[in-house]
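Worked Example 4.2. Consider the chain below.
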Amino acid sequence: MRDSLIIYKEGSTYIANYIGGLFVYQFRKLFETSGIMARNCVVEQNGRHFVFGNDDIVVHDANTVRSLLDKRTRQAIFGSIDQQNFRSSYVISYEKKREIWFCFPSAGNPFPNFAAVFNLDEDAWGIRELYATPHGSVGVVSAESADDSWDVDSQSWDADQTNWLQQGFSLQSQSLVLADTNETVATDSRLIQVDTGTDFAGQPITSVLQKSYMSFDAPNRVKIVKRIWPKIVANDGVSLTFRVGGSEGPDSPIEWSNPVTIVKGTDDERIDTFAQGRYISFEASSSGGIAWTLTGFDLEVEPRGYF
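Applying the procedure from the previous section yields the following structure tokens:
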């Protein structure tokens, strides 16, 4: 970090500065209780270190250290990590998306199969499911461009997801690539370019986006959800499924409403539904490897009594 060497142990952090003379380097303890989980569990971003520790995820600038986790997110991450294989965890700086990926193995998995994703601009967290990924890295992917001429485009005008004169590759574009062990087919290990295309190894992707346990700044009050208005960016004809759920606490099971499927451009995007609880959850999903974006959603929520 800048002119200093940061040295991480499991339960503490040290700093070494070059001073010359007889002693050459000066060593001192930087943080008494903040350390690192394993190798490759720290990345540098704009003069700061993001560190995956044994019981917390922190950011520091060699002077002050700050936890990035709230209580529920910390429990969700560290309550899931496999106790035998935690040292296979690693951290990736995905600058293209302004994200830091903290990849870890859940119980029973030898390699990371989940990533806790921290968005630098929004200061917010998300959990993303992975395949068995021993490691990942960011760099320029040099691949042959597919033939995108008019004559070989087999999709109809309405179904085609590409833009006019779209460029499939740019030397300035940094891509995230993950190594996949593909344990089901031992001889078919591969590299996966993230956020590219709508299929995985030829199989359509089933997408699920969920925001869970919203209290609306009133965790002790029961709420009833009657309607939702998802804000969808997708081609006409795309089918998406939505549901809402309620729970009594941030760690309680979610009781989901019946799923409702709508077709973009055909159905009314106002969805009548029902969910009740002190904490409200929302889910959008699709199948068949289609492209769509959810820019936000509105809920019609009726507050009830306190418990």
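The chain is about 5% helix and 45% strand. The first helix runs from residue 71 to 78. Compare this with Example 4.1 before moving on.
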